[in-house]
């Protein structure tokens, strides 16, 4: 439960404030309602910045500007004022008659076009980590990453490409890359099925190319910015080509887990990603890639991130470590 006690109103604030909210604890909030979604209203105020207020704590609300309401059943009501009276949402139907609806039926205020079935929302990031040392030893290291996601009301495309190139005294010490392509179709609000295509190469792990492709089912278990959690599980065909070891292919079971949180505040983002493939022919053979990181915004869409990557391959060829650990500090741009 979120309780907010409003400061006394100054005449200047009262004159410019647009919207009014009354809470169950008797607090009165004057400001501008900028967003309602996931059971919470965001209100910009002069006295306390932006407040997040749980809808179940609101007794009444009235906005002066017209808004678009998207209901839980995906019905869209346009040219409405956001009015709540005695925990009931007041709307006007096509005939001009007023109706009272349960507040739980309200999903989003002013949804984006893609949330109403028009086009895609495009998000992504591109970042680099580079180290150059000159002197007793000449070292050059480059890590790169590109991620792009296109999301509509009922489906999603994902593309990821990342890798590493390192040299010391003109001798290459690391050269690897990974590319991932995914398609998801949501058959309910949070549950989806998809197709996954994955490919990677690592010169110093004797891996010319590993790829797998297959279907999966996934679910977004938590979607709150404080903690989001999604997981996927599926089946795949896996093919591995090595430089010296025998090539192989096998049926696999694959999974993915993604968690993120803004718990630290300041628009920072803690994140955890894991991808795994289990060899169903040789059940002792398992591959698990895990990333743990912290990203925080800079200016104009730029962000910095510090992360740790653990890559485990129980079936690594002779002479190659089963666990590879990488620490990176990245700078990049997000949109």
From TrEMBL:
It comes from the Bacteria. It holds the Pfam family DUF481. This is DUF481 domain-containing protein.
